[in-house]
Each structure stands twice: as C-alpha cells, then as structure tokens.
Amino acid sequence: MKEIKKRSLNKSNELWNEAQNLILSGCQLYSKGPETHIKGVSPIYIDHGKGSHVWDPDGNEYIDYDMGLGPILLGYQYEAVDNAVIKQLRRGMGYSLVAPEEVEYARLCVKYIPSAEKVRFLKTGSSATEAAIRIARAYTGRKHIIRGEYHGWHEWTTAAESVRQGGILDDVRQYVHKFDYNDLNKVEEYFEQYPNSVAAVITEAVETEEPQDNFLEKLKEICHANGALLIFDEVVNGFRFDIGGAQAYFGVTPDLSTFGKAAANGMPLSIVAGKREIMDAVDKKIFISTTFGGDCISLAAGIAVMKELVSGEVNRSLWEKGRYLQDNFRQLAKDVDVPIDLQGYPVRMSLFYTDYNGKKDWLYNSIFMQECVKRGVLLGWHIFPCYSHTKEDLDYTLNVFEDAMKVYKKALKSGNPASYMEGTPLKIVLG
Q1: pTM (2 decimals)?
Q2: Would you give per-residue pLDDT tens digits along the chain (431 residues)?
Q3: Which letter, b or e, does each residue of 137-161 get, where b requires 16 or more Cβ atoms within 10 Å of its Cβ?
Q4: CA-CA distances (angstroms) from residue 119 to 151, 201, 233?
Q5: Cβ(388)–Cβ(56) below 8 Å
Q6: Which residues does residue 233 pair with via DSSP β-bridges, in sequence order?
C-alpha cells in the first residue's frame, strides 16, 4: 500500500476560520468549499500548482484531478500560455478602445467551433449561458426555456432549483423548466404544454450519461419543429472533447453554444457563439456589454490555448490518458470486488459509488475520496485529465485507487462504514 504521510493542515484551517468572517459563504465558488471535500483531511486551500501537481499552504503535495473544476486543460504554469500572458502583460491588460486580440481570438473561434459564425466574449460560463438565453429570447420573441442539469448561477436558471432561492423572483420560475438528459418525452411534453412559447432548449451535449438513440439529433429536430433554438452549454466540455467542443465530436451543430472553463487554461474567459443569422437579427435588440470582455490578458491566454490545440495532439493525449485511467480503474474494481465505477467519457469522468446492494450514499464517496487524498491524490466531482499528467502520475494514482478500494471494501463489509471517516463527509452543493 502507498505510504500515508502525516499532513499538517494548520495554515489551511487558519485561513478558513478567518475567511468565514470576511467572505460571504467563505469562498467564491461553492464547489470549491470544504463541504465538497473531506474537511479535516483534505486541504481547504491550494497555494500553487505546477504541471498536474498542486501544493497547499502547509507544503503538502497532491496530484490534482479536479484541475480547477475543469479550466486547467494543459497544466498549471504551462509555458506557452504563461509566456503569452507575460508578453501581453508587458504591452497592457486592457485599453480605452478595443484591442486587436479580440479579432484574432474571434477568428480562431469561428474557424474551429462549428456553431461559431459570430461570437461575443465574457468572463464566466454563467455569463455566457445568460447571454445565450437572452439572445434566444430576443430572436424568437418567446419567454420559456427548457433546461438541463446545471447552467450557472443567474436567475433564469437558478429559479428552477430547490435550494438557495433567496432573491429569486417568483415570477421567473414559471418560465424555466428542467428535464433529464436523454428524456425526449419530457421535452416534447413541455412543447405541448407551452405551444409557440419556448425560446430554447439548453443542455450539455453530454455529461456522464451517453446520448441514447440519437438523442442530440432528435433534440435538435424537436426544437426546430417547434420554432425554438438549441443551445449547447459547452462550458465544461468545450476544448476537452475536441478543439470544436463536444458538438464537433458528436457531429451535431446547435444554433448557439457557450464555452468557458478550459478556454484560457485558468484565465477567466468565456464565449457565446452562434449562427450569423441569429446574431445579426438580435444585434440591435439586446444589451450584452462588459468592461472585461475584451481583457487582453485572458484573450492572449485563449489564443495560446487554441494554438496548442490546433495539431490535435493535446486532445489525443487527453483521450489516451483518460482511457488508460478508466480501463485500469475498472479492472482494479473488478479485481478488488468493489461496487465503484469510473463513468463518462475519458476526457470528463465521474466516480460512481454504491454499496453491494446498489444503494448510493454521499458517505461512500467520502470514504474513497478521503483515502485518496491521504495518499496524495486530490479528487473532486469530476476527474479531468490534463495534458501535463504523466504516465508516472497515472500509475501512482492507480496504485492509490487500489489502496482506497481495499479500505472502501472493508468499510462496506464492516456494517458501520461511517466509522472509517476521519473527516467530515461530503455534502452536495449547487454550483
């Protein structure tokens, strides 16, 4: 078994105690907070990263698979991106007029993203999906939106949730409707329930579950048959599946799409992209305007990332590394005889935990993640391979996975798995 090093978390804990008095909810993104990791065992803060590794404020080192919740596509301190950022920093961050970098990046987006005939740049994925919804409503003259699992924190989408509803206007809820991935019947029901009133269906092209029975193609057909637009939220998938996103991988081009996270390898940059006909039709009707949309530093990073992707080597590597992890993980789970699976596509995977009767519980996730982080492997909601993960990283990780599986098995068979928790079990959060 891998050696378990005793890890001090004193500095992380001190910072968190102070943060709760200074910062609303203690952090800027709920999914990065202590509740989404094993408080008491996992680090709360990351001090710096290099390649595929990160270090917490106490100096503990981890192989990272959360990769900033998806943005770190190439690796921390990736030279080509860092050099582009430093070069641009010496020229200027943002000016009193638009910068040539906006045109250069737009040219690359239009060249490689199938749905991008015109684009607009923002800073976050949530802002990009907000912009896409506004465009769809302006173009169709309709109010209702049919949405998938998660599309950001703005009012139009959060109104369909059941938690953290403070400040959301009740009137907004009547216009947003959720459906489960692959459930075309539910989508058709909404179109029947709100005839000639649905502006768009927005969904991720894929999450963990694979599209069944030509789901994406049929979804597009249903939208167009009812006069609605199809929007792909590519904030997570974009640039991981392919330089053109999951839409290029699956060969289904939506009317609008949104990109973010991995666009600039950690710098804040998002994109709303769409067909020229749609973008031109709404140009004088909508207001999408932000000072930092043309931030030259992020655009320089985005240009550098796109240039790294052009050859196809990065994406091939992500698929190969993810497949190596997934195939070997599944073999280990079979050999150890534990009910855990590494599901999804190799470039974006999620661990799926149950007991031997098929029951799911956040406690089970917690036990496995705890045993991994104790041995220097940091997991989150997803497992994102990055270009900088090495064969050594992957093999070390698989050894840690095996050890964690063995503890997991003992915990399940003990009849009291909670007794194996050394920290606070996970809690599900929105965002």
Answers
A1: 0.94
A2: 566 777 888 888 888 888 889 898 888 877 888 788 898 999 999 999 999 999 999 999 999 999 999 999 999 999 999 999 999 999 999 999 999 999 999 999 999 999 999 999 999 999 999 999 999 999 999 999 999 998 988 877 887 777 788 878 888 889 999 999 999 999 999 999 999 999 999 999 999 899 999 999 999 999 999 999 999 999 999 999 999 999 999 999 999 999 999 999 999 999 999 999 999 999 999 999 999 999 999 999 999 999 999 999 999 999 999 999 999 999 999 999 999 999 999 999 999 999 999 999 989 999 999 999 999 999 988 999 999 999 999 999 999 999 999 999 999 999 999 999 999 988 776 66
A3: bbbbebebbbbbebbbbbebbbbbb
A4: 19, 19, 14
A5: no
A6: 258
